[in-house]
Amino acid sequence: MDYLKLRSQGLSCVLPLPVVEELINLPELATIPEAPVDIIGVMNVRGELVPVMHLGCRLGMTHPRCQETDVVILMAACGLRFGVLVNHVEDVVAIAPEDLLPEPDYGHLSAVNTAFVAGVARVHDELAIVINVERLIREPAAVANFASSVSEPDLESSAYHDFYARYWPTATPAQQALLKERQQHLSRSHEQTNEADERLSVGVFELAGELFAVPVTEIQQFIDLDRVAPIPGAPPFIVGHLHLQGNVIPLLDIREPLRLTRSPLPLKKAMVVSVNAMMTAILIQDIQTIMTYDYQQVQLSSFLSAHDNGHVGSIIQGSHVIKLLNLKQLLSKMMPSLAAA
Length: 341
Known about the structure:
This protein has seven helices and 20 strands. With 341 residues, the chain is of the alpha+beta class. Residues 1-142, 199-336 form the CheW-like domain.
């Protein structure tokens, strides 16, 4: 059976893929005073108000804080649609029956409420908590009645400010604006989204064992690396420079800002991109494919945000999670001079 592998508050977890509908970068949530204790807020998903719970809270961990890289997993279970907030979505994994521990030892989960744990599975040489989806919502009927009774006019601006006060008190005005933009984009119906927004062709590449994608309009070419000339005194993410078709371009390593593990083996391929009319080469592990991202046809999707930072969304393609990147924002953070271009 296929599972979605994720992390919440440092814990590795998996949940059944068939119940998952969509992956959404954390939008601005509205808190409702009368909401059940399991629900930290609601979000507008293309005209439907959907309750959202924090997995860390549900597992009984210390009250967690939200951050802009959090992901809401939209799912259908317990007779309703709801979102589950997690820190990171990693991959789709197949777990065989023999990988499920028949008598798991919950000793190392002393801080976790095991009432919502279906068991423990061995995934990629580590133990992952198998989430019991059917027991995530404490009172499904009450949550369903609550969700159906709330309307958009009920959500005043104070409800959004209360979300930050409770779950992200250190959020900057720029971070709040980012989440607000995500929510505004997410609330748009397919009829309100023009055809250009519906489809996006991307190049998919592998880096540190994960799959990433960028718009093909930004990709100039893929090259095999032969010799790289180092740049004395350059920041660690600038590996060196390349001579390409009469131009000298920097070669960047984006693994650190993406929080990826560095391999001891050198990377031998690069993707040449053009961002803000600046040519740059990015180290990659391998080239995968060119695909067209269609919001209406892909099973799981997140809406792209022009002002997001680095990782802006995820889609499921076969048995893999592909992470969409906003190169302009990522590279501008690494090289501030690019942001001013």
